[in-house]
Amino acid sequence: MKYRILVVEDNQLNRELLCDWLEVEGYEVWFATDLKASYEVFAKRHPDAVLLDIHLVAEDGLDLVAWMRQKPGTREIPVIAVTAHALVSEQEQILRAGCRACLSKPIDFQLLREGLNSWLLDSKASRINS
Q1: pLDDT in tens, the chain (130 residues)
Q2: Distance between CA 123 and CA 106 in Å, rounded?
Q3: Where would I find the beta strands (DSSP E) of the chain?
């Protein structure tokens, strides 16, 4: 079974780069360009993880994290924040909001690979044990 990753990114180049890399890595990839499209994806099916641009054009990506953490079926889904120029204080806020990690752009794909492997296994174990 392929893990399903939702990429929420409003920048087309960044979105394509992430989606292409994830597909090469063997993931099933879905994408959304804004929060409304993200909610529509969740209404149809739940991903196994979310890569989330925190600074969407007119929206705060952390609103999606807050929404996910309120719902029993989405609470345990790992969210990895992807952002440019995150200050240490902003990274701390992102982690407190419920993201598993905060990766800076440009993405270190080795770090992302290692993180996804770990977070997806942790998420799967917590769903099995609950």
Answers
A1: 799 999 999 999 999 999 999 999 999 999 999 999 999 999 999 999 999 999 888 889 999 999 999 998 999 999 999 988 767 888 899 999 999 999 988 899 999 999 999 989 876 655 555 5
A2: 26
A3: 4-8, 28-32, 49-53, 55-56, 59-60, 79-83, 101-104
- Residues 82, 65: Cα–Cα separation, whole Å: 13
Structure tokens at 70: 């309120």
CA distance 127 to 109: 26
Tokens linked to 84 = 């440019």
Please tell me the pTM assigned to this model: 0.91
Count of CA atoms in the C-beta half-sphere (13 A) of 129? 7
Q: Residues 17, 19, 23, CA angle at the centre, nearest 5°?
A: 120
83 near 102, Cβ under 8 Å? yes
